[in-house]
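STRUCTURE:
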């Protein structure tokens, strides 16, 4: 008698696919939460270095934090970087980061606006403002000396001294372009560049099916089965026409330097329905899927809590940098004590609440997903199915224990 697995049922396959997508979404949320925590850790190191007057080290930590920061965290990071660079008289870089802060911040910061105006007044004596635009936009404009503070997205504005300057333009999927610009007094000093698409190739391999079937790529006959050929990276419509006229269709995404393999079934005809009563009904697996889905939701909630705890931690750390409380820290204005401690304690309470709630969600969610998964493996119906698991004791002269066999 032939056997069938619960995975053969369309609605269960759909449920499994939905659960897998939910798990991927949860993992991406957890990764974002981890990035937010990483940004907070780097911000804390930067603040410590800044208070020790190691300004270059602090700036480098903040620049690293920008790579992991959420949008809300980036606002404060750009402000911290700009103020630190201003202290070092690195005015073009300070101008850029303070401008980014004002662009990203929701409200107006008059102190920063005044600082930007003062910087522009100073730079205008010896520097000229230059603009670089690219087609398509969004390329990275690399300006000498090429460190992290001289890599800005296009359209880019920067202050340069009059003369010839070398620049480099980078964008994923496009050829890197090097160019020179001449910045001169009395000129617009606006420069436009067009980037060329990088013609990178990947491989398409079509296996299975029926030997001699025709393979069509992008509507054109490309060869017979089995088939393999290289193509410029991009999306293509693939069609395999069987000798009996049946047609298998699929859209494939070919990426540079990789091989996409498409396994075509040997036949496209629908399988003959099993006669009624030929196999016993299989058990319901509702609780397992509910457990997996609920666990994944808890993990997602935990990821959100971790993001909120990271934001609270970042706010508490940034409070230390706030000039408003300099008088309190220097013991010259003790009237701010209650206000300072109240605000700091509130942020700290938020961090503790969100963090431990997130940990609890991760633990409970992970346990629920594990329980549901194990339940699916162990409870596969009244009769043996292609997917099964067995647990048996093992005793030997040199070892003893349990043996877990899982069959797919």
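SEQUENCE:
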């Amino acid at each position: 008698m032939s056997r069938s697995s619960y995975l053969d049922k369309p609605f269960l396959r759909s449920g499994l696919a939905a659960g897998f997508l939910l798990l991927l979404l949860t993992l991406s949320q957890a990764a974002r939460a981890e990035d937010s925590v990483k940004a907070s850790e780097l911000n804390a190191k930067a603040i410590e270095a800044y208070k020790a007057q190691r300004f270059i080290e602090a700036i480098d930590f903040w620049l690293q934090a920008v790579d992991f920061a959420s949008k809300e965290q980036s606002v404060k990071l750009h402000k911290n970087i700009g103020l630190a660079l201003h202290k070092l008289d690195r005015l073009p870089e300070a101008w850029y980061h303070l401008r980014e802060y004002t662009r990203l911040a929701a409200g107006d910061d008059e102190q920063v606006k005044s600082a930007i105006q003062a910087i522009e007044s100073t730079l205008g004596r010896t520097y000229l403002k230059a603009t670089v635009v690219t087609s398509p936009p969004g390329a990275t404009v690399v300006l000498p000396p090429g460190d992290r503070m001289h890599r800005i997205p296009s359209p880019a504005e920067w202050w340069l001294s009059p003369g010839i300057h070398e620049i480099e333009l980078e964008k994923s999927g496009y050829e890197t372009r090097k160019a020179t610009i001449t910045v001169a007094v009395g000129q617009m000093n606006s420069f436009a560049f067009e980037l060329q698409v990088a013609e990178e190739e990947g491989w398409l391999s079509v296996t299975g099916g029926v030997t001699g079937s025709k393979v069509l790529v992008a509507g054109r006959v490309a060869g017979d089965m089995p088939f393999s050929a290289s193509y410029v990276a991009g999306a293509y419509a693939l069609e395999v026409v069987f000798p009996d006229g049946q047609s298998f269709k699929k859209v494939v995404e070919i990426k540079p330097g990789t091989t996409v393999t498409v396994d075509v079934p040997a036949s496209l005809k629908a399988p003959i329905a099993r006669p009624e009563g030929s196999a016993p009904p299989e058990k319901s697996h509702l609780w397992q899927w509910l457990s997996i889905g609920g666990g994944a939701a808890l993990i997602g909630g935990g990821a959100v809590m971790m993001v909120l705890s990271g934001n609270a931690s970042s706010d508490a750390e940034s409070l230390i940098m706030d000039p408003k409380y300099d008088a309190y820290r220097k013991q010259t204005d003790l009237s701010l004590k209650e206000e300072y401690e109240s605000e700091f304690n509130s942020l700290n309470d938020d961090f503790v609440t969100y963090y431990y709630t997130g940990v609890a969600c991760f633990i409970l969610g992970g346990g629920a997903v594990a329980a549901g998964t194990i339940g699916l493996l162990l409870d596969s119906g009244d009769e043996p199915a292609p997917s099964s698991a067995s647990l048996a004791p093992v005793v030997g002269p040199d070892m003893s224990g349990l043996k877990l066999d899982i069959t797919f």
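REMARK: The radius of gyration is 31 Å.
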